[in-house]
């Protein structure tokens, strides 16, 4: 893999552009009771034929009325059998955030995954935005650098930081 952390600043990928890439001409009808979840995945160039292609995934969905980042992470930890390690609360762009890390064995060796959970309000609703980096042990140092730069570049437009309303562990 030949991705440098400096590439993030030179040519940032816009999540909105990626979200609508190839879908702007599509209509789909589902029951109004279904929960909307947006998922965008970016993959590294030239990743080869390894089992764990370096990827960044951005997901956004609504938080339940009484749900917190901490209990969302704890529920996911239960769902995967306790394999997630959760870090201390911090902030991204002024919003409360938590991180999890996990590791498993693939055919080509260890696969590492880090997910950052960020609470962001918009339009009177509370959302969780999850930013996940996944890679093989062979790409870990390069992907870590790119992921750190990507996290530093995150900016949410048009909302008051949730940290003014509620803390990540609350």
Structure description:
With 170 residues, the protein is of the alpha+beta class. The chain has a domain of 117 residues: Protein Transport Mog1p, Chain A (3-Layer(aba) Sandwich), CATH 3.40.1000. The chain contains four helices and seven strands. Strands 1, 2, 3, 4, 5, 6 and 7 form a seven-stranded antiparallel β-sheet that branches. The N terminus and C terminus are likely disordered.
Layout of helices and strands:
Elements: H1 6-10, H2 15-20, E1 37-43, E2 55-62, H3 69-79, E3 85-86, E4 90-92, E5 95-106, E6 109-122, E7 125-136, H4 140-153
Antiparallel strand pairs: 1-2, 2-7, 3-5, 4-5, 5-6, 6-7
Give the gist of this structure:
The chain is of the alpha+beta class and 170 residues long. It has a domain of 117 residues: Mog1/PsbP, alpha/beta/alpha sandwich (Protein Transport Mog1p, Chain A). 21% of the residues lie in helices and 34% in strands.
For the structure shown, list the relevant keywords.
single chain, 170 residues, alpha+beta, Protein Transport Mog1p, Chain A, 7-stranded antiparallel β-sheet, 4 helices, 21% helix, globular, disordered N terminus
């Amino acid at each position: 893999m030949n991705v440098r952390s400096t590439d993030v600043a030179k040519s940032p990928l816009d999540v909105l552009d990626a979200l609508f890439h190839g879908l702007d001409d599509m209509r789909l009808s589902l029951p109004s009771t279904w929960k909307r979840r947006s998922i965008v995945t970016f993959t590294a160039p030239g990743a080869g034929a390894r089992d764990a292609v370096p990827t960044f995934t951005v997901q956004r969905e609504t938080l339940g009325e009484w749900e917190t980042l901490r209990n969302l992470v704890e529920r996911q930890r239960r769902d995967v059998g306790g394999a997630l390690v959760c870090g201390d609360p911090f902030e991204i762009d002024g919003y409360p955030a938590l991180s999890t890390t996990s590791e498993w064995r693939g055919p080509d060796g260890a696969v590492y995954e880090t997910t950052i959970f960020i609470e962001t309000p918009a339009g009177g609703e509370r959302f969780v935005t999850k930013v996940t980096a996944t890679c093989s042990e062979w790409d870990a140092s390069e992907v870590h650098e790119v992921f750190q730069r990507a996290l530093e570049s995150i900016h949410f437009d048009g909302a008051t930081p949730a940290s003014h309303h509620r803390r990540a562990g609350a």
